[in-house]
Design goal:
Elements lengths: L3 E3 H11 L10 H5 L4 E5 L5 H8 L5 E4 L3 H8 L18 E4 L2 H4 L2 E6 L14 H13 L5 E4 L7 H14 L8 E4 L18 E5 L2 H12 L6 E3 L3 H32 L3 H8 L21 H11 L6 H27 L4 E5 L15 H10 L3 E5 L5 H8 L13 E6 L4 H4 L3 H7 E9 L12 E3 L2
Parallel strand pairs: 1-4, 2-3, 2-5, 3-4, 5-6, 6-7, 8-9, 10-11, 10-12, 12-13, 13-14
Antiparallel strand pairs: 7-8
Length: 454
């Protein structure tokens, strides 16, 4: 594809010409003149859009350890289905899993996942592994910028020692360090890298300025210069923790209103007529940000001797909602059928994306299966092989859906779902079935079946 270079050929050519190591703190001018390359390590939902945006202006190396993904991107295909094929055209970028190619770069952006384990403890293995990778190719005069969401202090206290140990270099003296929290929102074509203000930071004033100027190349909305790396780290974790708390409040209100027999969405609509009411909605909180990031903050707080109360309570409420939904479904279907079957529409963590990471509806499905309830799962965006590999679930193709379901759970407002009429549900359910509309898409539209929403 035009503009996408073969990484190995470029590396060989560079080795023949001799790789130039430039000591000193300036990098921006060399990037602009294409005397230096920028590398993005980790080409998922965050890394690939960043790499392609920079490749409009400067030379970029896109690095990932997953060779299957690399081969797809070399063909102009985004494995995550977030970036259109046209976005690859004419870009000065080479995709590789080869360290020899990565060594060409002097400005490294690390954008790997920061998940939690099954005990909700931060899993830094991807982040520290990426730090080791960069440490192997780090040279004097280089810059290393982290974008992965983590707790304040992680960049300097956990990642920096790995960089220095592997490279044998010293931060400040030999290379510069920075942090710029990612603000990529999968599925959102309006709030993009270019249109949202970017927070940047550096280990000193000179580093901060070089990092800021570099990001200003691709962020039309401009950058915010944070006074320290820890402040930049904290700003990201607070963004998602605040949303988690607000959603937890709405989820708790939903639990209360359900006992009162009133619809939470009706309440929100009424309360929303006041100018200063914040319209958050109840729902399952999954994905790689809101459902994960607060655990990084509570983990760090505990390490400092403080036990978080509000944040931990919000996490408990939001994590328990999937089981609450399951209990509602189980209670209903076991009353009306000896062999109940349920259709789940939507397994991705949000609408109109293929991302299934930390999908909370899976917890609901597992609860239903534990009661020997047949569950069919359908999603027009999720990839069958990923769902099977990650959760052990087989997706049901829409055209193969059975009829006479005892309950249908609509989890997210995918474009393919929002146009459904009541007839769609009537054709697929028995007369006593429950339509569980978790996001209130069909409020006041379901008349001839029992309707319930959060």
């Amino acid at each position: 594809m035009a503009g996408i270079k073969d990484g190995k050929e470029a590396a060989d050519a560079n080795e023949q010409a001799g790789i130039k190591e430039i000591a000193g703190g300036k990098i921006y001018d060399d990037l602009i003149a294409k005397k230096a390359k920028l590398a993005v390590i980790g080409l998922g939902y965050v890394g690939l859009p960043i790499a392609l945006e920079f490749a409009r202006k400067i030379s970029v190396v896109g690095f990932d350890i997953n060779e299957k993904r690399i081969r797809l991107m070399q063909q102009g295909i985004d494995p995550s289905k977030e970036v259109e094929g046209t976005a690859f055209t004419g870009k000065d970028i080479l995709f590789t899993s080869d360290l020899a190619v990565l060594r060409q770069a002097r400005f490294f952006i690390i954008a790997v996942p920061t998940p939690v384990d099954k005990y909700n403890v931060p899993d830094l293995k991807p982040l520290l592994g990426a730090s080791e990778t960069v440490g192997k190719v780090l040279k004097k005069g280089d810059y290393v910028i982290y974008e992965s969401t983590t707790y304040p202090g992680c960049t300097e206290e956990d990642c920096l020692p790995v960089l220095e140990k592997i490279s044998g270099l010293v931060m400040g003296k030999d290379f510069k360090l920075g942090y710029s929290p990612e603000r990529i929102n999968p599925g959102d074509k309006k709030n993009t890298l270019r249109t949202v203000v970017k927070v940047v930071s550096g280990n000193d004033a000179g580093a901060l300025e070089e990092v800021a100027k570099t990001y200003e190349l691709v962020v039309d909305a401009g950058v915010h210069r944070a006074p320290s790396i820890k402040v930049a780290e904290a700003s990201k974790i607070v963004e998602n923790t605040q949303r988690d708390l607000n959603i937890a409040l709405m989820n708790e209100l939903s639990l209360i209103f359900d006992r009162m027999g009133i619809n939470t969405y009706d309440v929100i609509e009424a309360a929303g007529t006041k100018w200063n009411f914040l319209k958050f909605f109840p729902g399952l909180v999954g994905g790689h940000c809101i459902g994960v990031d607060p655990y990084y903050l509570t983990h760090k707080a505990a390490a400092l001797g403080y036990e978080s109360k509000v944040i931990s309570s919000s996490r408990y409420i939001n994590d328990d909602m999937a089981k609450y939904v399951a209990r509602k479904i189980i209670t209903h279907v076991l009353k009306i059928s000896n062999e109940p079957k349920v259709l789940v529409k939507g397994v991705t963590f949000k609408e109109n994306v293929s991302d299934i990471r930390n999908s909370k509806i899976v917890d609901t499905v597992k609860e239903l299966l534990a009661f020997n309830i047949r569950v069919d799962v359908e999603d027009p965006y999720a990839m069958e092989e990923e769902v099977l590999e990650e959760y052990g679930l087989h997706l049901t193709r829409q055209e193969a859906e059975a009829s006479n379901y005892d309950a249908i759970i609509v989890t997210v407002p995918h474009l393919q779902y929002t146009g459904f009429t009541e007839a769609y549900f009537l054709e697929r359910t028995g007369k006593d079935a429950l339509i569980a509309d978790l996001r209130g898409i069909f409020k006041n539209k379901i008349i001839n079946r029992k309707y319930w929403s959060l």
